[in-house]
Design brief:
This protein has 17 helices and seven strands. The chain is globular and about 60 Å long. The protein is an alpha/beta fold. The chain has two domains: 116 residues, no CATH class; 166 residues, no CATH class. The chain starts with 12 loop residues before the first helix and ends in a 14-residue tail after the last helix. Strands 3-2-1-7-6-4-5 form a seven-stranded parallel beta sheet, with helices on both faces. The relative contact order is 0.17.
Length: 334
Amino acid sequence: MNPIFHDDDLLRPPAVEKLINHALRERSPLSLVRMGDGEGMALGQRDPFDPQFAKMRLNHFGPACSAERAGEIAAALEEAFAAASIVGLRPEAAILRLAPEDFALASPDFMAKYRAAFAVRDRPFPGYKSNLNYNAAFRLSQMAHQFVRIAPRLSGRPTLAWIHLKLLMSGALARLVRDAPALGLVTCRGDVAATIAAFRAAAVPPGPTRIVDIPDIYAKAAAAGADPADWLAAMERVPARIGSVSPGEVWLVGAGVLGKLACHHVAERGGIALDIGSAFDVWGGVMSRPGIMPLYFMGMDGERGEVPPALLIGAQLAALGSCASAHSCDTAAE
């Protein structure tokens, strides 16, 4: 994967679904992971931008996560991206080019550098622009910086970071729930997991479903009274709780930054792992990304600011019906 990529380089949703279906049919490993600003800041724990990264550790992992522990997470995260079959990227990864010393600049000087990065003529995404505050601009710039740093190690093919919403809206994720001979779920959305498990249990023959329940994102868990050390330990135990994986076994993972490590664990053992993040929220009727989701859902039936009813997990599975086995189902994008 080249450090600079263009719109034409990106895998479109039908191509991504085709690769997933191929892995399912051949029982071959596959990992789809996505890199956003949180992952960029986590990867950056190995770089000397202490004030910003100390704040990031607190926001993402809580006070129980030391600098040393964050560095270990960063190293494992880099391995997960390096080994992934498909890597979801934000457009900023192709546009922003800031030098390491730029991140130490005061806010006005940093923002001048940031805005200058969007003044280039040859933009890989025509019309793309960004108008963010300093904190958001810093995170996105660091994400792009980390992408350039690790790009020589990446062997996977690129797609956009919001591919999980595209796959949800096309019904590809629901079809995978129906067709996977064995399915695992890593999510804090217990209602969604229960609906999926009940649907698969009612199939003929029933489809096995394993659920690894996790706490909500750190900020919400902490607000609800969770102990930071317990939260971090629970998230770091996810790969061990997944344990052994059979070839062709599918895992849908919604576990934030640390979910990428779970995806790597599954693919290393021959399984198919998809980092679907906030797709679990959409399935559960939660508009958890109000800045981006309404743009994808525009034109669909439903109340403004709410998830369209057709995208709820129950509605999507009801529209599909049941299926006896993956071999007897007609899968899309073949």
